[in-house]
């Protein structure tokens, strides 16, 4: 009996592994195709300044054209296969091209953030590539922000520090993404060149629980005392907006204001106000 069920379990496990592998191979194939055939696109999620409710910048997020697989599924595969290197460079080029395009349409430059995952920090030529693309399109480096997750920083290699310092030397800004999902050791905040902390959605959600507000306030105060700006991610509720604003959170991002949008849908709302003081979303959120 025991032996039998053990064998079934083993077969089930094997079947599962085959499925996972198949999916990986399929995703890898789609990524190869997308790289060869212009199959990626970026969507842009507005970031708002809570006092005026106006858009102060955007986060660029990667999508596959015509396929509903989200980055949480394909980025790990791209990391594993090394495809993240050419994909990451495409993201850099495309985000900077879009910033220049908005500027050339007469819109004021606003900061755009791109995400970098772990393996991209060992892309030796990336900082040179970034610098070249910025120069080509005449975009001041301060308008480009790079988001790096806490887990990447926790690997704590000297390479990471060198990489980030190089970006800083060019003038690119660095944001710590998904803050609060890992160990959140505040120590590394003091020795890494970070200008902004992005509170993960799980932390933003804590603003809905009264007992956590004090703790959250002290995280914001601490960030400020280290001269960092604070952005709250995943803000969906008017109540969160109100509490975060009261706590002195500098910027917010979330479905309450807007979902990530294709560039052509950003253009008409580029200078608009996405929320008003009575905390009712105005317009662009869907
Ligand atoms: P992230 O950088 O933390 O991005 C925030 C994610 O939260 C995005 O998911 C965004 O669409 C989603 N989001 C925004 N507002 C809300 C909200 O109010 N509620 C909820 N539930 N979700 C919200 P997305 O676009 O699926 O990206 C997932 C992750 O994939 C990103 O997390 C980032 O780590 C990674 N990623 C995305 N684009 C790129 C890229 O170009 N390169 C790399 N290396 N990673 C990327
Ligand atoms: Mg991010
Ligand atoms: Mg995040
Ligand atoms: Mg994330």
UniProtKB/TrEMBL annotation:
Residues 24-274 form the EAL domain. This is ABC transporter substrate binding protein. It comes from Anoxynatronum sibiricum. The lineage of its organism: Bacteria, Bacillati, Bacillota, Clostridia, Eubacteriales.
């Amino acid at each position: 009996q025991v032996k039998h069920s053990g064998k079934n379990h083993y077969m089930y496990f094997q079947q599962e592994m085959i499925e996972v592998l198949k999916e990986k191979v399929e995703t890898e194939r789609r990524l190869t195709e997308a790289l060869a055939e212009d199959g990626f696109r970026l969507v842009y999620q507005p970031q708002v300044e809570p006092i005026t409710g106006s858009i102060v910048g955007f986060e660029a997020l990667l999508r596959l054209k015509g396929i509903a697989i989200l980055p949480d599924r394909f980025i790990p595969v791209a990391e594993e296969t090394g495809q993240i290197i050419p994909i990451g460079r495409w993201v850099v080029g495309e985000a900077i091209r879009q910033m220049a395009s908005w500027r050339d349409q007469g819109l004021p430059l606003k900061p755009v953030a791109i995400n970098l995952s772990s393996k991209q920090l060992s892309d030796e030529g990336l900082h040179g590539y970034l610098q070249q693309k910025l120069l080509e399109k005449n975009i001041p480096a301060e308008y480009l922000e790079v988001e790096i997750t806490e887990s990447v920083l926790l690997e704590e290699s000297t390479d990471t520090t060198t990489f980030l310092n190089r970006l800083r030397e060019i003038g690119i800004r660095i944001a710590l993404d998904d803050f609060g999902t890992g160990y959140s050791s505040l120590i590394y905040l003091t020795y890494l060149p970070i200008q902004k902390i992005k509170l993960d959605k799980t932390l933003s959600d804590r603003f809905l629980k009264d007992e956590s507000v004090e703790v959250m306030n002290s995280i914001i105060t601490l960030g400020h005392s280290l001269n960092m700006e604070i952005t709250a991610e995943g803000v969906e509720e008017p109540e969160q907006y109100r509490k975060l604003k009261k706590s002195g959170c500098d910027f917010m991002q979330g479905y309450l204001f807007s979902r990530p949008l294709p560039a052509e849908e950003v253009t008409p709302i580029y200078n608009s106000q996405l929320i008003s003081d009575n905390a009712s979303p105005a317009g662009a959120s869907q």
